[in-house]
Write a sequence for this structure.
């Protein structure tokens, strides 16, 4: 850690305030599906689709079959997502600042509207539930998310071809922040082209933008069990981000934040069956980043850690 300031003594109080502001902003941006399910960077109101690179490491052993998203044209699904997030921030001379977010629950209705001859699936999605119950939180904290709807088209291998959001509820400035970190386009796991068996392993490499940070991500999937209509996969995630300027919401005028380094690692387990629009399962992700903050000619280095656990389960409509 390093620190520069004119007085040469204790860190100025405004840096403590900046720390808390950054921590709160980072927590707000993390309250969405994690980057581990990421597939494409997001723009609002529509999505600029950049396809990830899929590399097959092994096709596995025993009987093999093509893994594809097979969804009836009249499918009406419900996906419930739950997220637990805790964050800590440490700056020399200030002690650790810690925040634990109350569990966040999102409920997503998915209505398939068309399945094309080439297997492309078009669906409408609607956030029918969004809650984050905890002390000090307003009851309507997530109301801007409720009712948010959009349309998407993905291939039968899980590659998002197009996505657009209805911004009728998007007058709130929090909308863009939420959508930039949202995981609505990240639910589908990209699948290899060739037939796979138990033990098959593949990597999905991509550049992901989450919470204003551009990072390189590599997700590795391995089939641990499979039958004629479903497969279970183990998932590992590795994230790295290089030096870049950050513009988190809530930063004071004239203040600057620079990312020095960021690394994250995660593990999860997913099940994928015929009729599913998205794999279901859980993911745990831990990340650590180092930042330099500057304001009024003074600067200091700080570190931030994030622990996140997410579950995706089938809900009832």
């Amino acid at each position: 850690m390093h620190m520069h300031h004119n007085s040469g003594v204790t860190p100025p109080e405004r840096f403590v305030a900046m720390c808390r502001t950054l921590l709160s902003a980072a927590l707000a941006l993390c309250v969405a599906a994690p980057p581990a399910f990421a597939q494409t960077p997001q723009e609002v109101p529509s999505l600029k689709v950049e396809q990830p690179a899929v590399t097959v490491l092994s096709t596995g052993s025993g009987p093999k079959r093509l893994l594809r998203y097979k969804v009836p044209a009249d499918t009406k699904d419900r996906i419930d997502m739950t997220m637990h997030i805790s964050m800590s921030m440490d700056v020399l001379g200030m002690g650790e600042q810690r925040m634990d977010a109350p569990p966040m629950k999102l409920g997503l209705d998915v209505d398939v509207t068309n399945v094309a001859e080439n297997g492309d699936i078009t669906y409408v999605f609607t956030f029918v539930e969004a809650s984050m119950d905890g002390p000090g939180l307003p009851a309507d904290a997530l109301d801007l998310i409720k009712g948010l709807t959009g349309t998407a088209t993905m291939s039968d291998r899980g590659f998002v071809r197009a996505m657009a959001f209805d911004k009728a509820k998007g007058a709130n400035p929090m909308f863009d922040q939420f959508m930039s970190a949202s995981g609505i386009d990240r639910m589908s796991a990209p699948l290899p082209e060739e037939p796979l068996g138990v033990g098959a392993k593949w990597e999905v490499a991509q550049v992901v933008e989450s919470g204003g940070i551009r990072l390189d991500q590599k997700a590795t999937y391995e089939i641990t069990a499979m039958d004629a209509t479903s497969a279970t996969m183990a998932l590992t995630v590795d994230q790295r981000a290089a030096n870049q300027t950050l513009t988190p919401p809530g930063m004071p005028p004239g203040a600057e934040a620079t990312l020095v380094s960021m690394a994250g690692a995660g593990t999860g387990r997913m099940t994928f069956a015929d009729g599913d629009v998205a794999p279901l399962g859980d993911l745990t992700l831990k990340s650590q980043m180092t930042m330099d903050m500057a304001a009024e000619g003074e600067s200091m280095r700080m570190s931030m850690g994030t622990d996140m656990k997410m579950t995706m389960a089938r809900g009832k409509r």
About this structure: The chain is about 10% helix and 50% strand.
